[in-house]
Each structure stands twice: as structure tokens, then as C-alpha cells.
Predict the 3D structure of the following.
Amino acid sequence: MENLWNDADAAADLSDLGLRVYTSRLLGRDPALVLHGGGNTSVKIRQPDLFGQDEDILYVKGSGRDLDSIDASGFAPARIAPLLRLATLPKLSDTRMANELRGALTDASAPSPSVEAILHALIPHKYVDHTHADAVLTVTHTADGAERIREIYGDDVAVLPYVMPGFLLARQVYEALPALDIERTSGIVLLNHGIFSFGATARESYDRMIALVSRAEDYLKQRAAWSLPSLPKRAAVVDMATLRQDISALAGAPMILTLDDGELAQTFTGQDDLARIAGQGCATPDHVIRTKRLPLVGDDLTAYAEAYRDYFTAHQDRATVPLTMLDPAPRVVLDAAFGMIAVGRSARAADIAADLYRHTMEIILRAEQLGGYTALAAEDYFDVEYWELEQAKLRGAKTPPFAGEIALVTGAASGIGRACAESLLARGAAVVALDLNPAVERLLKRPDFLGIRCDVTDEAQLAAALEATVKRFGGLDMLVLNAGIFPKSAKIAALASDQWRKVMNINLDANLALLREAHPLLKRAPRGGRVVIIGSKNVPAPGAGAAAYSASKAALTQLARVAAFEWGSDHIRINVVHPNAVFDTGIWTDDVLAARAASYGMTVEQYKTNNVLGVEVTSRDVAELVAEMCGQLFDKITGAQVPIDGGNDRVI
Ligand code: ZN
């Protein structure tokens, strides 16, 4: 484990809080220490209150903040005295505790303090660091984990058995403290949960964390339990779209599935006793909300859901209030045929589940080499999964209309295509953007966006793009056919055959191929597939000099009308928009626009709004219509054509 401390970087802010931010980020940077909001840190600072009286304040990580990106405003300043008083209560619900923690803040606009704030307050050292280090979790998730921890650390750390995080854990530490020589130890190992280190300075506490975790890593190395076993890679073959359809039905909402067929996933899923090693529980209950306690091993979803319902029924009486059962769908699927598939309500949620489970796989493989992976009892996972604080989140949860759904847009690097991608993203869809322009790959950097350079006239490239879509997000719900060209004006008497064929090839043939290849995926869309085609005003109102363009868009429209008939029984809707005079796209530079306006004897403004309503139609207007056509408003409409042109006298 590398110590990332650097004097020059640390010197940027040498205040107590500045150094707290610095080493928190160092911890956050190493996924073998903390993942996705895991871990927490604090510093105790004495400062004068409004009346000039000194008071001790705990600056503790705000709940839900990520250590790798935290800044000073991510720390919640809480008065230590009331926190210590809370620890003397024999009992306190976590909801009430969260309320009391907020009440102890000196700044009402600060984030809510971490649920471990009381524990941080109890430890007398100035700096306290807490991580869920993989190496420590590996050692503690074995049958004789506690003895092994003693063997590794001797008296350098205190060791506490697993209890539920939150007030119970604070209370456990409060009761244990008098018997611990806490001033002389450099940390506490919480079995099956993680590790605390502390010190007088930010550096001391950080150095100790790295040193302590390194000792667990060394222990694993000495016992040949560090290097992961490896198996040869196999090709991933699975109909993920079908699996997604089934999982979404079980979850009661569309879900994103993301495939990991990398070496670790292949190795893990290739283990002979996969069902046994994966069937005990994930590495630490902290992950349970994202990954569920158990993955689905193989493909028997019905049995998985039944077992999940049994688990809920068996443990629901542990809570004093009636619990809402979470959906019984798995969040991780393991199958030797393809690797690991992670599941989530959004691409981000699926990615987090994948990240967390990759660490669980490593921990299990190493612990197996150390003598056998042993997880906590099911009830310990249940308590965290059905924690009152998590149940409260369910009540406030709001999801965007296309959450868990996947849209593919062609010609998406600019203009109407790009605007469509943005409108779909804004409604919660994951978006795959295709374009001939390689810039599409770097268009947006976010987990729910995948840009693919693709020549839509090349069927092999189209097939590869659809495969990449399914591997990344699990399937396809919406398809926006936008890519097309508008060739130079040519009268029929002078229209070259190869020019005609080129336009037909891009505007028509490519769309036929994509519709055909996407059909089996759209058919498996949990809420039914939707296709929107970007037609043109030229379909109802053609003009001289645009024979190839108008004919290609008219043929495409006719293709959509036939598809509406053929695909209705597959619950796929297909509709067409006919935009006109959308000038905020790449081809309409200011010069071209000015020249065209002048040729009609108009100002640019007059030219742009030359329609019945006298309004300018933008890419965004078209995109919003396209997105709405994929939504509930158009649920019972297929085969329709909607002009979006401000009213055109030849169309009306
Ligand atoms: Zn923790």
C-alpha cells in the first residue's frame, strides 16, 4: 500500500482543516481503502464561539460525501460536548441520532454529519481516519479472522466484534473505551467492517492507516493469499437484453445492466465452487444496499427472488416498525458463461454495484486462499439493508421518467442529434450516441453516456455498436434515427446516379439495417420499445432541386409506417417528426444563413421565423418533441407524423 503523502501538496493549506481535507483526499484516491462514499474522517478543533468562549468542534465528513473529492465545505462542524453526552444514552434510534447530530452543528447550512460522528468524538486523538480497507476486510472475513488480526497487529490496535454502524457502534466504542489503552494504540479494527487510525496530526493518522493496512496486505502475501488465481478468458455469450427484461420485471422498473467480462470476473465466475464462495455474503454489510447480500449465481431468477422474499420474511421482525420490502431482483449476476453483470436503477448505480462487487470478488478469492471466506450472519446484512435511515430514503425517492432506460441516437455529435441525446439524458435515460465524427466519443464524460464513432452505412459497425450498447447498459429501449445528409441542390435532369445512391444509402438503407438489427432488443424493452424518426418538411412539401433528399426521407417515412404495423404486437411504437428550418446546426453558419436570407430579400431574423407562427424552431425544440414522443404522453400513438416547423402553409 503506497503512502501518497507529499510535502509540497500538503503545504497548500497547513491549517488543521486544510490538512484534514488533504489526507482525506489521499485516502479517497485509493479504491483499496474506500469506495463510493465509504469511509469517514474528522479533526477536532478548538475555536471561539460568538461570545469569545473556546469550544471544541468536531469537523467530521458530511454524510454521503466522497472522500476523494471532499473540500472544507464537505465537513460538518459539530459541537463535541453534546455528541459525547449522546454516547451516554443506553439507547437511541438512528433517525433520532441523525436529528441530534444536525442539532449540534455550529453552521446550519453544513451537510449532515456522518452517522459515525459520535464515534469520532469519543476517540480522544485530534485526527481520526476510518476506511473499509480491502486487506482488513479479507482477513476479518475468515473463520478465525479475530485471531489473525491479533497475529498481525498484536496490541497496536484494539479489536471490536461486528455491530451495526450508527448509534450501536458508537455505543460499543463508548463502553469498550475505559478498558482500551486508546492513547497508546494507533487504531481500532472493527471486524467485518473496517479500520480506524488516529493521531495528533493529519500526517500521523494517515501514515498509521497506510502502515496498518500494509501489514494486513503483507500478511496476505506471506500466506500466498494476495496474488489472485487466474483462469483463461472466455468469450462472453449471453442474451443480456432478455436477462434485463426479466430482472426489470422482477424489480418493477427498468434496470441498467452492465457487463464486466474482464480477467477478475472471468476468474471468479470460473471457480468450481462459485455457488458456495459467492453464496455467503458480500464483503461487509456496508455494500449491501448496492449489491444486495447475495449475487444471483447462474440464471434461476425465480429461485433468487423466492429466496430473497424468504430472507425478508425471516428477518423483518427485527425492526420495531413495519418495513417496506425492497425489490427482490439481484444487483449482481455471476455466470461462468459471461462473467459479472451489475444491476442498478441508473448507470451510476450499476457502476457502483460493479465496483463494490469487484472488491468483494478479490476479498473472497484471497480469503479462500487464506483458509476460507466466512461472512457475517444474514441478520447482520439485513439490519443494514433495512436500516431505518435507508427506509426513510425510499419514501423521499424521486426518479426521472426514463430512469433505467437506454436510448440510442444516430448523428449525435452535433445539431438535432446532440440535442436529442441531451433531452433524453435530462429525462434520466442512459444514452448511446453514434456519429461518424470521432468527437462523439468525448462529447460528454458521465456514466450514463457512451459515445461511439460509427459509420451507419457499415453494417458490421452498426452490429458492433449495438453489442457495445448491450454490454455497457444491458439493452435498448429507445432509438432515434437522426443521421442523414442534405446534399447540394441538383435538378433531376442533372442528378448523377451515384449521388442519388449515396443519399439513399445514408438516409434510407442505413436506417433499415439499424431498425432490423435493433428489433430484437427493442422487443425486449421492459416498457416497450420506442422509435422516433427525424423526417423532414420535404416529405409532405417537397421542393425543386432536392429529389434525392426528399425521396429518401419520404421512403424512410413509409418504412416507419410499415414498421408501425409490423411491430405493434411487439409493443414497439414508431413515430416520425418533420422539422423544417432548424438553423442552429453545423451546416448553417452565419455566412450561409445571411446569404440565403439575402437571396429571399429578407433579414436573417425574418428568414429564421418565416412560418405561420412567426417563431424560430431550434434543435432543442425538435429534441424535446422527440423525447416526449418516447414518453408516456405518446404511449398510445404509433405510426404518427408530427410537423415541427412553426406552421408551414404548404403542410397545413
Ligand atoms: Zn464504516
User: Anything to note?
Assistant: The pocket of zinc ion is lined by residues 130, 132, 165, 193-194, 286 (CB under 6 Å). Residues 497-522 form the longest helix (26 residues). Confidence is low (pLDDT under 50) at residues 232-238. The two ends are 71 Å apart (CA to CA).
